[in-house]
Amino acid sequence: MFCIAVANQKGGVGKTTSAINIATALAASGHRVLLIDLDPQGNASTGLGIAQAQRGRSSYDVLIERDGLVPAAVPTGIPKLDIVPATVDLSGAEIELVELDQRTHRLYRAMEAAEDRWDIVLIDCPPSLGLLTINAMVAADALLVPLQCEFFALEGLSQLLNTVERIRARFNPSLSILGVALTMYDRRNRLTDQVSNDVRAVLGKVVFDTVIPRNVRLSEAPSHGLPALIYDHRCSGSEAYMALAREVIQRLPREKEVA
């Protein structure tokens, strides 16, 4: 079971959209996939059509060890894709976790107990570097960073990478960077090209070749409770996420791939 945390402390970078659509593409390629919604806003759950009535158990229950991953997981309408949904209870988890034992390892322990129920686990992190995101980084094998093609992108990225180094030093020395995905790319905007070139100059091969364009269908899909890959698989955004998922699969360790 290979775990990928989808994280960026900056909001509005396409993090949840990336998590939903990469998870969908991985499931379509034959992997058993679990998406853990660790954002109190619960957008990943909504984007996969999980109604509030279906969220009796949630990632909050997993973190406080009221439930394990397996009983908390809900099947989605997509074959081979399950989700541990988020509820508003998660918004208070940061405060509650402070008083709990091993507060940084709660999700890690839940992952261990789930063994190999899924091939790949993706964690949609909140737009912050608090205890929820730290739990995700401690549990994860690798980090996937969606990065918006805009001026302040590199500044935010450096802060995130510093946090990764601290997590490696204290809790999870094997945490790696699976890749950085450039999102919201607009070919008409010269600044977008400049940011893309700057990021590739600094990070090199860690940046995925695939770039996710600005696309109205990507924005529309969540309101229908569907990933863009299901809502409109022919739009440029869907095609880009399918290409990105292929790159993700290529970067997985061999033993983690589905035979």
UniProtKB/TrEMBL annotation:
Gene3D superfamilies: P-loop containing nucleotide triphosphate hydrolases (3.40.50.300). Residues 3-177 form the AAA domain. It comes from the Bacteria. CDD domains: ParAB_family. Pfam families: AAA_31. PANTHER family: P-LOOP CONTAINING NUCLEOSIDE TRIPHOSPHATE HYDROLASE, PARA FAMILY PROTEIN CT_582. Involved in chromosome partition. Localize to both poles of the predivisional cell following completion of DNA replication. This is Chromosome partitioning protein ParA. It comes from Sphingomonas adhaesiva.
